[in-house]
Automatic annotation (TrEMBL):
InterPro entries, sorted: Dggglyphlred_Halo, FAD/NAD-bd_sf, Geranylgeranyl_reductase, GGR_cat
Protein name listed in UniProt: NAD(P)/FAD-dependent oxidoreductase
Flavoprotein among keywords: yes
NCBIfam families, per database record: Dggglyphlred_Halo
Organism of derivation: Natronoglomus mannanivorans
């Protein structure tokens, strides 16, 4: 017998989970296919640092019960300096958060199938009409959504996304106890999310400490293995080596130890989307990709992506005659650029400039942020060109020239 739904979603991360939650609340017949076994979920996909902000907590009704620690400050560190800005936030227990999304959608009638690995789209007349999972099982739907992240089995098969390996960021994180959160030689990280720019520990990327209460924190490293990484990398070092080097040399970790079973690994692509939708289909979350290119915050952007897809599906399925054509599905693309990740092109430019800079420039950046008005960093982070310009100095001209040459080379294939 043919199984048919209004919407089938592959993947139950923040994007897929929120999309399912929104559509189920609107009484659509939705099924989510998740690779992991239910009794282990989400052990394999528990990959996020899970820092987010009040706007996301309020917009999506995330309960306090899934919060490990509420924070009130964001700290940026360089090798010898730091900058602190008041900014409320929350560090989530990611596994509890993902299960919350599952429970919410199920309560409104969404069906979840675990141990269900999606492998390819089902095509009729060149258009996707369903998915194959577990090699031979089939489900048909009016709308098919890929929320599987970088693996993207449906989006890749449909030529909707083109995720470049050279744009793939990798990260590893430990949860640790015994950390000196307020060490004399460093900024006070009590109830703070800290991001460190320092090529010794994260060449071409950044490292972090997110306070999770008392003497515990999430501690990690992330970088893209591109030209900038190669310029500052140590021979023979992998990402685990860099994180261990930081732990071994930073006095805040002198008495710290890893919490057993609390190691997280993940990856996401930092690039402009090449596509998002086609007839009967949308790619959401890190399948697009959607993660914040500067600081890696993905929960808010992925959930907004899932909501934009739900809005689009609702529009397409509530016509007098169902219309899931590429033209109607492109509403999702518009919402993505307007609401999910506005000014992405400018923000990616800032990423390239930031991670190409030497450590000495990071020290200067902290001093610059101290003397500039309080919202310069926020506006620059949002892709405001004038704010980005305020952060540049004459000494950055060689950096800009090098970036321009790289972009021209990539454009013309030289």
């Amino acid at each position: 017998m043919t199984e048919t739904y209004d919407v089938v979603i592959a993947g139950s991360g923040p994007a897929g989970g929120q999309c399912a939650r929104d559509l189920a609340a609107r009484d659509y017949d939705v099924v989510v296919l998740e690779t992991e076994a239910e009794d282990e979920f989400p052990r394999q996909s528990n990959k996020s640092t899970a820092g987010t902000f009040p706007s996301t907590m309020a917009a999506f009704g995330i309960p306090d019960e899934v919060v490990m620690n509420f924070t009130d400050e964001v700290v940026l560190e360089s090798p010898t300096n730091h900058y602190a800005q008041e900014q409320a936030g929350a560090v989530l227990e990611f596994a509890d958060f993902k299960n919350f999304l599952v429970d919410e959608a199920r309560a409104d009638g969404c069906e979840y199938r675990f141990d269900a690995r999606v492998t390819k789209p089902i095509l009729e007349g060149g258009e996707v009409v369903g998915v194959t999972y577990n090699r031979s099982e089939e489900i048909y739907a009016d709308v098919v959504i890929d929320a599987t992240g970088p693996s993207a089995p449906l989006a890749k098969a449909l030529d909707v996304t083109d995720l470049k390996r050279e744009n793939q960021a990798i990260g590893v994180e430990y949860e640790m106890r015994g950390i000196d959160i307020d060490h004399d030689e460093h900024a006070d990280l009590t109830d703070a999310m800290m991001l460190r720019l320092d090529h010794r520990y994260a060449p071409g990327g950044y490292s972090w400490i997110f306070h999770t209460g008392e003497d515990t924190a999430k501690v990690g490293v992330c970088y893209i293995q591109n030209d900038s990484h190669n310029r500052y990398a140590r021979s023979g070092f992998g990402i685990d080596d860099y994180l261990q080097r930081w732990i071994d040399t930073d006095p805040r970790f002198a008495a710290a130890e890893r919490i057993e079973g609390k190691q997280h690994r993940g990856s996401a692509h930092i690039q402009l989307p090449t596509g998002m939708s086609t007839d009967n289909f949308m790619a959401i979350g890190d399948t697009v990709p959607t993660i914040d290119p500067l600081w890696g915050e993905g929960i808010g952007t992925c959930m907004r992506s899932g909501r934009a897809a739900a809005i689009t599906a609702d529009y397409c399925l509530t016509h007098d005659a169902i219309d899931t054509s590429a033209e109607n599905m492109a509403i999702y693309d518009q919402l993505w650029h307007e609401d999910v990740a506005p000014n992405m092109k400018n923000r990616l430019l800032m990423v390239e400039l930031l991670y190409r800079a030497p450590n000495s420039r990071y020290d200067d950046l902290m001093a610059d942020l101290e003397r500039l008005d309080d919202d310069t960093l926020s506006r620059a982070n949002a892709g405001n060109k004038r704010a980005i310009t305020k952060l540049l100095k004459p000494g950055d001209i060689p950096l800009l020239a090098n970036l321009a040459r790289t972009r021209l080379s990539e454009r013309f294939g030289n």
